[in-house]
C-alpha cells in the first residue's frame, strides 16, 4: 500500500482523497484502511505543498544542536511561516519528528534530499 500511496503523491504533488480511493480499489481493501495508513505516516501530504517541501527535524537530538535556529533562518529566508506555504507556492515549511539522522543532527529535508550537520552562523 505504501508504494502505491507514494506513487500517487508523486503524481499529484500531494495525496488527494480521490487517489486514496483509487489505491483502495486497486488493492481491494476498504477505503478506511488506506486512509488510516495515509494519515499515520507523516511522509504523506494530504494538502497541496509548495514546489520545495522543507521538513525540519526538531526532535531532541536536533533540538539540542539548535534546530530552532534552522527553523528561524528558513522561515525568514523563504518568507513562509512554519506549517505554511509561501504566497508564491514555492515553499512549504514543516516541523517533523525524527528523519532518522540523529547521529548527524541537526538536519532537514527538502523534497527527497537530506541535509545533515547544518549550522546557522549569525
UniProtKB/TrEMBL annotation:
Gene Ontology terms describing biological process: mitochondrial electron transport, NADH to ubiquinone
Keywords: 2Fe-2S, Iron, Iron-sulfur, Metal-binding
Domain of life: Eukaryota
Molecular function GO terms recorded: 2 iron, 2 sulfur cluster binding; metal ion binding; NADH dehydrogenase activity
Note accompanying the cofactor annotation: Binds 1 [2Fe-2S] cluster.
Chain positions recorded as [2Fe-2S] cluster binding sites: 57, 62, 98, 102
Family: Belongs to the complex I 24 kDa subunit family.
Protein name as it appears in the record: NDUV2 dehydrogenase
Biological source species: Pseudoatta argentina
